[in-house]
Structures are given as structure tokens and as C-alpha cells.
């Protein structure tokens, strides 16, 4: 059992996943923690620009990373970047190790909370890149649970999401957090009861500004971390 | 250029190094960040117990990790665990990629600060495991700069250092931080003008309690991160 992390998109989101894997693991000593190898090599063409038709495809770099992780005989691969899941099927086809889809991990987390609280899933605000919004992974899964998805409008994407996301990539977490907090507020004002943070740059930024919206948010990165811990607990080694 | 991190000792110290590499890198976008692959596999026999003669040697697991990192053609290897440097020469001999010694990285940082402040290096309090204290890496380097090293006494090691360090490994950062902050206070009370945090579990713990002693501390993990960033800036790829 060895979790392979195809990271670097951005590097801080990868560190955030590694941190959350540790936080989610019940451990009394070093050796109880999940074994992970993280490929945190950010020299991968920009995913948002590729999908917008303004940049080269990241697929060759992603395939090279999958190949490197498989050389280490990883048992599973996770990708702490929602947008990169656009190439999920190509990567899964090229990998001996199975890939865990971040939207599946997030849905498992949403289902569990909804079940435990005995509430119905109603309006969910989705914070994600244009690429992730267009792909429909989250909207389809929420609809199957009877939930309705609210997405940012184009003006909100341009004013809040895109500059917030790229601020995180420059290390300006506070600045990014202020922008993304305002986007969260807009979705809540329009009736969102829950938010799903479906871009891995978002949770560190909202945390940096201590956003009150974190309390009603599902964090896709934390959900992916929980999926890794569950695989570790299921394995013979744990 | 690809930094290989031989991590997992503990896993949180590895994440702390990755975070500090990002913080120390001037970057305007993902692709400007240092490419890193982190072997964060904590199933390595306890280093402190091995050196105390009460546990098995971690050397075979460390050599296996070095071999895995070399399979990925890393250009340098760093180890965010001071105590594991006991096996540094064996690992360096087995590695095609050169290893950067954490005490060398820390000394470069100390030298630079001393030079910039125009002060003399006088009494330095050293916070480290028994194994690191006994090895003398730091004391010898400080003496060469004219500095005198203060180390914790055996009672302080047993009361503060060892339980503080193992609390971090259990994820109890606050509890660990309180203990390690008291150790820092003891060394300052005995005349230390600077502290060197030469165990990678210590900086996250002191940060968790917002210890005032961080202001007079050299953080070996951050120094190692700076050494990685310098290698990246020196390379053609940066």
C-alpha cells in the first residue's frame, strides 16, 4: 500500500492534501501514518489555459508523472487538482495503479454528512474553475442525490474566482482568500445552503482569512485525504 | 533539477519542509516553484530508539528510500530529520544524487544572519534529540564560528524534549509545543542568545503555540528549504 500523489497543481494544494492526510489519520506514532509519495513538480502546463484554448495541453506532463509514480509501484494515485481531472480517463488508462476521482471522494463525504444530519441536500454552491464547472462532474453527482447546484456567473468568475485562484499560486493566500470569501458570500446570498470547494487552491485561501463560510463547506481536498486514509485502513498494513 | 525528499520522519516534518520550500521561493505562477518528489513513507524504524539501542536500525529502510528516489533521477536528496543524519555517510555513498546535510544548510543560514547583523555568535541553545546532540554536528560547526553551544541537561531532555517530540508524532502539536517552549525558556534562562531548532518536529510545535522564542530561533527545516531553493535558482531551469 503506497498512495501516489500526482501533485504540483499548484504545489501548495499538494502540501494541503498531505497535511490533511496526516490530520485525518488516527496515529499514535510515525509508523501509523499513511505511506505517501508525492510528485510535486509544478512544471505542468496550466490546466485552465489549456481548457480555454489559450495554452498547451498538460497531458504529456501528466502522463509522465503517472509513469514515474507507477515505477515506484504505488497502489493508488490521487490528483489534488480538480481541473486536471479533465484528463482522468486518459491517465487511468495509462496507469497500472487505480486512480481515485476527487469528485467521487467528495460525494462520499457529502452523502455521509447528509445522512448523519438527516437533512435533505438542497442548494449547493459550487466553487470551481471554468473547466470543472463545464465538465459537470459535481452537478451530475449532486443531482443524483436530489440536490440542485448553484454556480458562479461569468462576472463572478472573472472578478472573484480567477484572480483569487491565481493569487494562491503566487503565494498571496490572504489576497486570494478575500476574493474567494466574497464569491462564497454571493453564492450564499443566492440561496446556497452548502458550498463545495471543488478547486484545491480554495481551502488554503479561505483558511488564511478564517472565512466563516468554511463551516458550511465541503472541502474536496479533505475528502480526497479521507479516501486515502480509508484505503490505508482497509489495507493489511495499517 | 528535481529535489528528492527522503521524508516520513515524521510525516508532518516532511510537510513542513515542503511548505517552507514554497514559502522561500519567489514565484509568480505554479511553474516557478521548485520541482520536488517527496518520499513520505513513515514505516521506517524509530531513529531515536535505534540510537539508544532499544530498536532496530532504520538503515535498510533509508537505503531503500534512497534507491527509490534515485530511480526517479532526482538531482539532490534532502532529509527533513536531523537524527537520520546519523546514517548520512552510508546514504550518500549509496546515492547517485548528492545529499545536502541539514547542519550545513543551517550553518549557512546562521553565518548569513550573524554577518548581516554584524554581531558575534555567542551562546547558542541547541534543541535536538539525544542522537543529534551526541553526534556533535552542530556543536562543531558553531565552535568553528567562535560560538559556544548550550545543550539541554538529561532531566530537561526527559521532561520536555522527548515527550514534546513524540507528542508531535501523535499529532498533538499544541501539547508538544507547550513542552518544547518550556525547554526553550530553560536554555534562554541559562544564557542562550539564539536557539537552533535541530529537530524537525520542533518548529511546527513551537508555531502551534506561537512561542516567543521563534524570534530568536534558527529553524533547521527552513534552512534546508532555503538550500533547496538556492539549488533551484542555480539550475538552468529556474
Automatic annotation (TrEMBL), chains A, B:
Name this protein carries in UniProt: Aspartate racemase
Parts forming coiled coils: none
GO molecular function: aspartate racemase activity
Top-level division of the source organism's lineage: Bacteria
Family designation: Belongs to the aspartate/glutamate racemases family.
InterPro entries on file: Asp/Glu/hydantoin_racemase, Asp/Glu_race, Asp_race
E.C. no: 5.1.1.13
Top-level class of the enzyme under EC nomenclature: isomerase
This protein's UniProt keywords: Isomerase
Keyword DNA-binding set for record: no
Amino acid at each position: 500500500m503506497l498512495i501516489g500523489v500526482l501533485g504540483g497543481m499548484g504545489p501548495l494544494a499538494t502540501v494541503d492534501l498531505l497535511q490533511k492526510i496526516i490530520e485525518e489519520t488516527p496515529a499514535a506514532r510515525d509508523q501509523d501514518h499513511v505511506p505517501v509519495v508525492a510528485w510535486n513538480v509544478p512544471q505542468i502546463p496550466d490546466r485552465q489555459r489549456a481548457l480555454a484554448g489559450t495554452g498547451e495541453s498538460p497531458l504529456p506532463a501528466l502522463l509522465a508523472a503517472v509513469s514515474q509514480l507507477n515505477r515506484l509501484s504505488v497502489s493508488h494515485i490521487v490528483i489534488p487538482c480538480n481541473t486536471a481531472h479533465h484528463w482522468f480517463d486518459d491517465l487511468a488508462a495509462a496507469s497500472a495503479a487505480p486512480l481515485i476521482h476527487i469528485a467521487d471522494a467528495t460525494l462520499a463525504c457529502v452523502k455521509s454528512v447528509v445522512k448523519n444530519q438527516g437533512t435533505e441536500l438542497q442548494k449547493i454552491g459550487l466553487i470551481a474553475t471554468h473547466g470543472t464547472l463545464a465538465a459537470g462532474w459535481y452537478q451530475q453527482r449532486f443531482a443524483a442525490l436530489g440536490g440542485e447546484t448553484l454556480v458562479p456567473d461569468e462576472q463572478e468568475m472573472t472578478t472573484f474566482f480567477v484572480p483569487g485562484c491565481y493569487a494562491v499560486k503566487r503565494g498571496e493566500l490572504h489576497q486570494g482568500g478575500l476574493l474567494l470569501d466574497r464569491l462564497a458570500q454571493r453564492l450564499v446570498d443566492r440561496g446556497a445552503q452548502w458550498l463545495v470547494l471543488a478547486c484545491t487552491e480554495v481551502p488554503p485561501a479561505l483558511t488564511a482569512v478564517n472565512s466563516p463560510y468554511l463551516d458550511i463547506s465541503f472541502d474536496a481536498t479533505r475528502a480526497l485525504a479521507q479516501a486515502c486514509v480509508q484505503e490505508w485502513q482497509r489495507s493489511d498494513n495499517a
